[in-house]
Amino acid sequence: MTHPGISVLLVDDHAVVREGYRRLLESEADLHICGEAADATQAYQRFCALSPNVVVMDVSLPGASGVEVTRRMLARSSAARILMFSVRDEVIFVRHALNAGALGYVTKASGPEMLVEAVRAVARGTRYLSADVIQGLATSDALREATSGRSLSAREFEVLRLLMQGYTLPIIAEKLGLSEKTVANHQSVIRNKFGANNGVQLARMADRLGMQFSTGAVGFT
């Protein structure tokens, strides 16, 4: 059956949250949910199979992040229109999502009407940022100055994010499709950029940037 209007793929690892989004968006006559996904692998597979007009993507997913799967989707189709919808409002996450090609970024602190508005804007190919995201970007000059010369590449950011979640190097290598040696090299470069001699120092710096980490992390050496 063909639906009129804007087709949306929902990507979030919480089924209850997805159900809430579905009810909200499908209460609008011009929006319908064509599929759902709980992790990056499912998201990419369903994106390829369904070709949605808009992907509503959480940043924090099991395994590869929403930022990483955004990059993969756009590598497959440059016309992909992706809206990040996340509890994470830290500037470092916003910048990496936008640099990966996301067309919009809305935080879950925003009102429900803003998500609806954002989906429609992204479907038109228009950039959309929620008010708190705009404010965070506008006031981030001090943070950017403090981290001058320490900016991470997209791959380094992804490795650091998984390290912060407590994953070991072999598991990170498996999740990102890299060799363990390559991941170890990325870890070394990240430490050098932040002047960290060990995992604890690196975690402290990441925490200052808003990248929460697991207190039981086992990936640090």
Can you describe what's shown?
By secondary structure, the protein is α/β, with parallel strands linked by helices. The relative contact order is 0.10. Mean pLDDT is 82; it is low at 145-149 and 212-221. Helix 3 links the parallel strand 3 and strand 4 (82-86). A six-stranded parallel beta sheet has the order 2-1-3-4-5-6, sandwiched between helices. Helix 2 runs parallel beside helix 3, helix 8 (154-164) crosses helix 10 and helix 9 (169-176) crosses helix 10 (180-194). The chain has two domains: 6-138, Response regulator (Rossmann fold), CATH 3.40.50.2300; 147-208, Arc Repressor Mutant, subunit A, CATH 1.10.10. 52% of the residues lie in helices and 13% in strands. It is globular.
Beta-strand residue fraction: 5-15%
CATH homologous superfamily annotation of the largest domain: Response regulator
Output the strand order for the largest sheet.
2-1-3-4-5-6
- The helix fraction, in percent, is 40-55%
Unreliable residue runs: 145-149, 212-221
Summarize the structure.
This protein is α/β, with parallel strands linked by helices and 221 residues long. It contains eleven helices and six strands. The protein folds into two domains: 6-138, Response regulator (Rossmann fold), CATH 3.40.50; 147-208, Arc Repressor Mutant, subunit A.
Helix and strand arrangement:
Layout: E1 6-11, H1 15-26, E2 31-37, H2 40-50, E3 54-57, H3 66-76, E4 82-86, H4 91-100, E5 104-107, H5 112-123, E6 128-129, H6 131-138, H7 141-146, H8 154-164, H9 169-176, H10 180-194, H11 199-208
Parallel strand pairs: 1-2, 1-3, 3-4, 4-5, 5-6
Helix pairs in contact: 2-3, 3-4, 8-10, 9-10
